User: What shape does this take?
Amino acid sequence: MSPLHFSFYSAFTFSSLGLAFHRTHLISALLCLESMMLSMFIPLSIWPVENQTPSFALVPILMLAFSACETGTGLAMLVASARTHGSDHLHNLNLLQC
Amino acid sequence: MNPHAKLICTVSLIMGTSITISSNHWILAWTGLEINTLAIIPLISKSHHPRAIEATIKYFLTQSTASALILFSSMTNAWSTGQWDITQLNHPTSCLMLTMAIAIKLGLVPFHFWFPEVLQGSSLITALLLSTLMKLPPITLLLLTSQSLNTTLLTLLAIASTLIGGWMGLNQTQTRKILAFSSISHLGWMIMIISYNPQLTILTFILYTIMTSTVFLSLAQIKVLKLSTMLISWTKTPMLNATVMLTLLSLAGLPPLTGFMPKWLIIQELTKQEMTPMATIITMLSLLSLFFYLRLAYHSTITLPPNSSNHMKLWRTNKTLNTPTAILTALSTTLLPLSPLIITML
Assistant: This one.
């Protein structure tokens, strides 16, 4: 694997580990999700350049648009959890236990 | 909920599902999955109850992670093979990551923890959408890539799902959680057979959708959210209680009813593929889920609660005619004699 691909791979892996091991706040989970999407944006932007397929040039913009919508939704959920549970602490989300 | 918002959400759900199941390119499949996630979030959180908001947060986090993992696995495959075709997923790391991502999306064990809680926090009709329509795009992706996926891993996920779905459903009293665990164990059956005969997965999914829709629509009509409500629901619509019993037994897989067909065909196919111990294990594990289906059927038809006699008759003011429930009930109990026809149609 080339050093460039390895850097994107490790960026995504570390962001996903940050998402898996977040402990206190919901917003840190949303930040890790956003950084996963960002680490996918750069490889998608490089793909039409290194493979000479200009038809693929729209894809990073599409991906960015959807990830922005998703982040907006996540922030709306953050506000909603602050309204109903009082804060964005994850240990407050315990109303639905088995 | 505002009718315009509900229309936009429902149409977006159908559009997102159609985009994913008709796509050849990974980016389009990912787009459809994202549209589905974004569209169902207002539907889950529409009542603004704390439980609904919590369910929405859990659903959103898991599904977004899984979508990002799907995009990353397709990117890794594109780096090594130079193309984005869904059916040509050949890189082994990509296959592993895709299997894990689809397992998160579907709610297979060991990624099942969000599913009962999300179903419990949403209304019965939203729970129906979450159990049936939202499972269709990930199963389609799995069907398209089933040739290159690791069979041992899929068998392990299937047996673990059937075990956990059966075992954890035994202690539940809320009907939505019971149906969540029933969904997990049915998904286990679907994933078991996907690398040997994908058409049986399609058949199992269609029949599971019909039976689960019947149960959810019937429960929504008599507004049963827990087992104790099930005891007194016979006064509202006596005929519906009888059909709910038959549909639950069909979900359990008892022979003269439709639910027996997928189990029978899957066991037959597994035996043909020299996987007889696996077939035995998965059949024994579905006995666990039989127990909680029988308990639901028992509570709805065979027992009476110790109430006084003036509680036994409720005022029945609006007798609604519910055609979809009737059609789905007929399909989910009587399709077994048509199985030769259905096998040739797949």
